[in-house]
Design brief:
The chain is mostly helical and 88 residues long. It has one domain. It is 70% helix and 7% strand. It is built from six helices and two strands; from the N terminus they run αβαααβαα. The protein has helices at residues 2-15, 23-36, 40-47, 51-58, 68-72, 74-86, and strands spanning 19-21, 64-66. Strands 1-2 form a two-stranded parallel ribbon. The mean pLDDT is 90.
């Protein structure tokens, strides 16, 4: 979905943290937004609202590629990444 990729571009420009969604993640986001009766933009804003904080803490990669597993459990994925980073 173009809206999903636009969200990733805006996120990257706003926070200086490059993210990109896989095509399957974009499809999953569209499906979840439709199932919840919300726009894709609103779904992304709500689901990934804490990502700028968590990803900033662990930003060692040039880009975060987010797939459907991230879409299914965004908060859990982010928490695991932060914890894993601090255990290094």
């Amino acid at each position: 979905s173009a809206v999903v990729h636009e969200f990733a571009e805006r996120f990257t420009k706003s926070y200086g943290i490059p993210i990109r969604f896989t095509d399957t993640a974009a499809v999953r986001i569209a499906e979840k937004a439709e199932a919840e009766g919300v726009s894709i933009r609103d779904y992304c804003a709500r689901s990934f609202k804490d990502f700028q904080f968590g990803l900033k803490l662990i930003q060692q990669e040039e880009e975060f590629l987010l797939d459907e597993t991230v879409v299914d459990n965004p908060d859990e994925w982010l928490s695991q990444r932060v914890v894993k980073n601090y255990k290094k």
